[in-house]
Amino acid sequence: MVFNKRCFGVGTEDGSPGMDEKEHVDGLFTILKYLYVFAIADYLPWLEVFDLDRCKKILKNAIRCLKKYQDPEIDQRVEMWQQGTRKTKEDILDVLINLKDSKENHLLSLQELKAQITEIMLAIVDNPSNAVEWALAEMINQPDILDRACKELDQVVGRSRLVDESDLYRLNYIKACVKEAFRLHPIAPFNIPHVSIKETTVGGYFIPKNSHVLLSRRGLGRNPRIWEDPLVYNSERHIINKDLEVVLTDHDLQMISFSIGRRGCPTIVLGSTMTTILLARLIQGFSWSPPPNTLGKIDLVESQRDLLMNKPLIAYAIPQLEPHVYQKLMM
């Protein structure tokens, strides 16, 4: 989608990503992990040179890792467009390279292009994967929800082909499951900080000009004044009218999935589509159950360091589609 390739480096024999891709993804998650970390130099700038908590060193190494894999791809692609050996826009990188103003001047320099690609990679790697992992874990623990999702997929798509983007508008229950995961299990405790450009009052609270404003994703999504049984995963709460399509954003700020407003996430549609497709294909492609020796339940415990699952989801999956569907994926 970004680089028109499944992974960096050479994958394994079974088609899985190899060590190069793992190193790249680890670098992305390291940067995301330290996005909200407490660093004493943020409050005492003169201590920055000492890097007492090693945050600076860790982030530099992670950024170096991203550059190791991304920059050569970007440099090569830019050169291909300059030499005229590439003429068709096939991915996000091609689109960004060819952004021009009214005078046909490129809008992004090479340095800006690389920064934008890193921003996009950081934006798409965490939220969809976290929401799908939590949603699948919750649904395995509530077989009735999982069963209803499977029935919807059988009715809309069947088992002779994979669900695709054109099916999503008819998969209201699947989208409700995704939205409930965004509500109950946000990827981060807070939204990205914003600064108020003028004095204002919100909900009876006075916010002075130049204030740093943080919205609590967890606080909004688990607010008992808004949500009934807020700690219970219940996808039904998002299906208010069966004739209305479920959308993954909430303009009333009762929850935050991809942020909203003029400075909200610019890839809300893309992120929503990726998340829904990922969950739908996992549910459609396999019959899921807790692994043996787990007393029939997945351990739904948050990590003490962040809002991810304390332990990666491990579940028992049995293929349930026609064999030729899986064979096409491996081609």
From TrEMBL:
It comes from the Eukaryota. One of its GO terms (cellular component) is membrane. GO terms for molecular function: heme binding; iron ion binding; monooxygenase activity; oxidoreductase activity, acting on paired donors, with incorporation or reduction of molecular oxygen. It is a single-pass membrane protein. Heme binds at residue 265. Its cofactor is heme. GO terms for biological process: secondary metabolite biosynthetic process. Keywords: Heme, Iron, Metal-binding, Monooxygenase, Oxidoreductase. It is found in: Membrane. InterPro entries: Cyt_P450, Cyt_P450_E_grp-I, Cyt_P450_sf. It holds the Pfam family p450. PANTHER family: CYTOCHROME P450 98A9 (PTHR47944), OS09G0441700 PROTEIN (PTHR47944:SF4). Belongs to the cytochrome P450 family. This is Valine N-monooxygenase 1. It comes from Sesamum latifolium.
